[in-house]
Amino acid sequence: MRFELFLAARYLRAKRRQALVGVVTAISVLGVAAGVASLIIALAITNGMRRDLQERLVGSTAHVELMRPAADGIKDWQDLLARLKTTKGVVAAAPGLYGQVLISRGARSGGALIKGVLPDDERTVSDLLQAVAQGSAKELAPVDGPPTGNDATPPIVIGKDLAESIGAHPGDTVLVTSPQGELTPLGIVPRYRRFQVVGIFASGFYQYDSTYTFIRLADAQRLFSEPDVISIISFKIKDLYQAAKVGKEIEEAAGPGFQTTNWMEQNRELFRALKLEQIVTFIVLALIVCVAALNILIALTMMVMEKTREIAVLMSFGVTEAQIRRIFLYQGFLISLTGTAIGLVVGYALSWAGGHYRFIPLDASVYSIAYLPFAPKFLDAVIVAGVSLSVSLIATLYPSRSAARVLPAEALRYE
Q1: I want to staple 157 with a disulfide (CB 3.0 to 4.6 A). Which of 134, 199, 328, 336 is the partner?
Q2: 31 lies in a domain?
Q3: Are 119 and 170 contained in the same domain?
């Protein structure tokens, strides 16, 4: 062990008459540990929120969606779909027909976004139909010919929160009312049709569980009086972070009048807000480390005052000013290193426990997820440790310089 490091460690073990210095040193260590642990936990929460929201968004929606805003849907979509599937980077594609409806059961009702789908194709671009928790989505398979018998009441799959709000269960019949009504002598009459609930999906994402519903594509076309027309083509691509680039290629392949949107554009504000929250949280909690650094400055300043005679004796034996300075720099480094190590262990332990046991519930209607997620990253530990050690070392500069300026003759004059 180097001479300076040995003395620094020795000075940290205060004697009884220096108990105040020892208490201040312990408070400094705990302050650094609290700041580091708080930073690790806060960053783990923001990382977890971003990860879980992204996974749910990407799993519940298509990576890229193609539409024709200026026209009433996409006609001759079979040939277009087959052609666009060959676009570079596209893994799968599925047609869909969207529409806003009112779903009611008895006196209870709720607004919903209904989507007519081909279930086998829809499963290749979205996971919602694979998240059916009650019943089954098998009955959404297309049926040839006009509805007869049991098909007179076509099937529908709805979200868990929507099912709870209208009191629907598998096997129940619901009334779907479309605002796109029919013109009659009495005016425009809303179009409505009864559907049988065959499945209830639970994605864990409130936005989808409270509004999304699925029916067969042919049933949606009959409900909206749009024969052989779709409103959107959904795509799944190899690299979801290349969604904008692949979307441009799909637009060019589709021709004029078509427009694409992707999951990053649809949720840009959400992820921007999460990133800003992460930065602000880091800055605010870093102030705890700064307060702990002030405690280190106070502890070392008191140490210099207590050790003035010892410093003078060392300098009279030939110890240089640079060595004296390094003794107190090492002291501050040891305090900071100890506190940082404790903080990292505590922060990662609590983050792991929170992510594993999910003991902090959230209101899904507000936060879109049912529990507080934790996702600690190694890079965050490196950044937090670097900031903690750097701030603490800066706090040692003044006490170490003061110790190096002690004049042996003046310090020992009255000894």
Answers
A1: 199
A2: yes
A3: yes
According to DSSP, the residues that pair with 182 across neighbouring strands are 189
- Indicate the residue among 257, 277, 299 that finishes a domain: 257
The confidence score (pLDDT) of residue 4 equals: 76
The answer to whether residues 137 and 162 belong to one domain is yes
326 and 348 housed in the same domain: yes
* Closest by Cα among 269, 263, 99, 264 to 177: 99
Of 257, 284, 315, the residue at which a domain comes to its end is 257
Distance CA 69, CA 260 (A): 10
Statement to judge: residues 38 and 82 lie in one domain: no
User: Do residues 173 and 195 make contact, with C-beta atoms less than 8 angstroms apart?
Assistant: yes
- Per-residue pLDDT of 115-174, as tens digits, reads 999 999 999 999 899 889 899 998 898 876 555 444 578 999 999 999 999 999 999 999
Angle, CA 195 vertex, CA 191 and CA 197 arms, to 5°: 145
CA 387/CA 339 separation, integer angstroms: 13
Low-confidence ranges of the chain (pLDDT < 50): 16, 148-150
For residue 138, the one-letter residue type is K
Distance, in Å, from the CA atom of 370 to the CA atom of 359, rounded to the nearest integer, reads 11
What is the structure's pLDDT at 228? 85
